[in-house]
Input
Amino acid sequence: MRFGVSTFVTDEGIAPAELARALEDRGFDSVFLAEHTHIPASRESPWPGGADLPDKYYRTFDPFVTLAAMAAVTERLRLATGIALLVQRDPIITAKEVATLDVISGGRAALGVGAGWNREEMRDHGTDPVTRMALLRERVLAVKELWTKEKAEFHGEYVDFAPSYSWPKPVQRPHPPIYVGGAGPTTFDRVIEWGDAWLPIFGRREGLAGAISELNGRAAQAGRDRIPVAVFAVPRRVEALESVADAGVDEVLFDLPTAPADETLRRLDDLAALIAR
Output
C-alpha cells in the first residue's frame, strides 16, 4: 500500500518546494492538490464539509503551476490533482498542462478529476450544473485523445474540435492515470468507461471492501483489469489503515491541513511515524 497526502497549497501555508522535498525525504509516495479557481461571494452552494467554508478554499494556488514547482525539487514523488475541476477547464489547455508536467517530471503526473460542488463557481465558467457530468465525460475523453493521438479530433455535444496537433505527449503510456473522484450511484460507470483509478473520500461510501469488489467485478465484465483505489482523508489511526488495507485499497491519502512550515513538518513527522508502525 502506498501513502500520500492531499492538501490545499496557499500563500498562508508551507511553500510548494519545501513541502515537496519534505514529503519525498520522509518516504511519501504522492501529493494530491485541490483546485478552486475562485469562490463566488454569494456562497449559495452549501459546502459538503459543514457550515463555514475554510479560508484555504479562497486562497488555493493553481494546482499545475504548483505541481511543476514540486517536480523541480523532487525525483520520485507522484504529482497529482485531487481534484481538478475539469468542468471549469478548457480540455485542450488542460491536456497540454498535464502532458507538460508529465514530461518535466519524468513521468510522475496523475490527473484526478471531478465535477465539484460549487454551482456558482461552475456557472462563472459557463458550465450548467445540470449537465456537468456529461460535460466532464466529454472533456476527459477529449484530453485522452489529445494525449494519445498524433492528430487528435473530437466531436461531441459539449466538446468539438477538428483534427489538431498537440504536443508534448505524456511520458507515461498510454497516458497519465486519471483518478475519478466521487462515491455516488453512477461513479463506477465513469471509472469503468474512462477512468484509471477510483478516488473516494473515507467514510463517504459504506462497505468499502464490498464497493471495491463490486467495482472490479463490473470492470471484469467490461473486459478491464483490476482498477486501483486511492482513498482521501483516511483517519490517522492504525486501525483505520488496517481497515483500508483489508478492503484492498492501493493508496492511502492523509488530509494535510494548510499550515506554516514548522507545523506542517511536525505533522509529516507524525504521519511518517504512523506509517512506520
The first helix runs from residue 16 to 25.
